[in-house]
Amino acid sequence: PNNTTHTPPKNDTEKIIHHIWTTILNNPHISTTDNFFHLGGHSLLATQVTTRIRQEFDTPLPLRTIFENPTITQLAKAVQQHGKQAVVPLAPSTETPDLSFAQRRLWFLEQLKPNSTLYVVQSMWQVSGSLDQTILERALTEIVRRHQVLRTTYRDDAGTPVAVVHADGDVRVSVVDASREPVPEASRQAIELAHREAQLGFDLAAGPLLRVHLVRAAGDVSFLLFTMHHLVVDGWSMTVLWRELSALYDAFSAGRPTPLPPLTVQYSDFASWQRKWLATPEAADLLGSLREQLDGAPPALDLPADHPRPSIASGHGGREIVVVPADLTESLRRLGLAQNATLYMTLLACFDILLSRYARTRDIVTGSPLGGRPFPELDDLFGFFVNSVPVRVRWSGDPTFRQLLAVVREATLAAYTTGDVPFDRLVEKLVPDRDLSRNPIFQVWFDLDSVSEADHPSGLRVTETELDPGNTRFDLELLLAERDGRVEGTLGYSSDLFTADTARRLVRHFMNVLANVAANPDQTVLAVRLFDEDEARALLHGPRPRTTLVPRQDIVDRLTNVAEATPDAVALVRGQDRLTYRELQERANRCAHLLRAAGVTAEVVVGVCGPADLNTSTLLLAILKAGGTYLPLDPTHPDERLRHMLHKAGTHLVVTHNDTQAHRLATLHPNVTTWQQLTTDLHHQPTTAPP
Q1: In what order do the strands lie in the sheet with 651-656?
Q2: Which of 91, 425, 449, 464 stands 20 to 30 A from 255 (CA)?
Q3: Do the domain assignments include residue 7?
């Protein structure tokens, strides 16, 4: 508990919620005044709380309610105020098995690209101990018998998917004998086998959609490989697999019958419920709210790429390792708790800073997974339940990190509130025409998983072996998990767009953002450094990279300080012309106001083509004061080179110093002006810097 005094439940509502919390958090010593998130709660566990409250009270409580009422006392009052509502019940269906919205969309995508590896889900485990193949097969056969979705195939009926449920059948495990090989060599062979199995894909009409392989290594070590199609499985399903496999393996080893209670519902019952729920006013309201959240959002996050985007994404990708040390993880966790935010929200805020710098935008939509199991009974099922939710984060000006975290928290809670709306229904409404070059609505994926030790049969030790699938559905996907007090994972990237070097640089810059934010959460977003000292030194003394983002405070604040200390000292000299620091500051401030009026704000790019004179120097400083970034343009470069630079940088405005250059650049960019045109009204502007 996080309180020194223990306050027990006072009424029936508090008693029921207390029981829910102690079960989910596996902690019997919880006070009604303890904060759920200080006890180790997070979004996934909060989702489980809401599903059980829905079951106990007939109250479909939004996930936001737990964040706003994080103690049992507060939550009980919220439940009582919310009251009971008529809900569409989840019950066994007598109808022909249907597909969920997610399954339908996945099936259609599979038809566009048959046998794609994008939707192959694999899980490989190193098993230490004597693993009996016969008992393993018997346990897996019982699991397939229990879960209808594992013995379902999907045929094409004139362009419409139809689910076909098959009778029970025995599961056979394919065995590879590497018992004469040491464990590292057997592991290598198992990983190669996994890659070959992934390349095989699946015939959705013929099935089966689950394949199992066992690689025997020296001693009592084996590698167990599960290969499945995403149509029948998600991440939580693997928890179900090991829970049931462990119980069945132990029972069958001891000569006992199955200890598992019969399932009360099947995946097809969820699909039937979903179809009925989507016809309710509640679903219509949530879909409307989700559309409002995304209204005016950019259609794509335009990250600077190493290669042009192909018309059809290949799905090929690579991964780079991300490891956040335990002390930094704890600092970020405490930072989030101080703002009533989860570690997920804190890490997403840091990731959004990184994306904002690279894409030069303050309006970012990322995708994240949400459990998609609105009833407790569904926690015991295999199936493709997980829903993709868009999280739109947008801000203006230059907020502090704490202020940005508050924005991210609100955006995340808004996404959670509408999380029952299938992403595929949203795509159907917002993006009816499929663009095969990119994922609809969002192109970057972010996930923070909470990893717990998998159940395992008695006498066996089971550890997961990481597999690189060699593909990705997104431009970037940051997959993180909490393990042993630290955050670790991978940054996946589309090799259609990015090189491994770029991905490694992104990881390095992400780590720099984390460290900067943890050290000083009160600094502004633009002040957060992407570069460490070594990289900054290399940038200063090495060749200039294609684009760099330098914190504007460095030069702006330094010149301001000098101007205050020695205003009449000479700042710039060009031939007979000179400017003092006071004159330079006043001219740059006036010009910055004009740039603001022209749409130059934080990180907006301005192309500058002019000689090395006082006007150009003033303009560059004014751009920084307005919050923008300048792109130097060399008039000796050919038109194609200049056009490419302007496009890649996302340039908003181009300023030149004569009409000849302006006429030329106007053929390359739609928004071109001259220094004379820009500064016509210069002397009527304030001499103080814009806010």
Answers
A1: 629-632, 605-609, 651-656, 672-674
A2: 464
A3: no
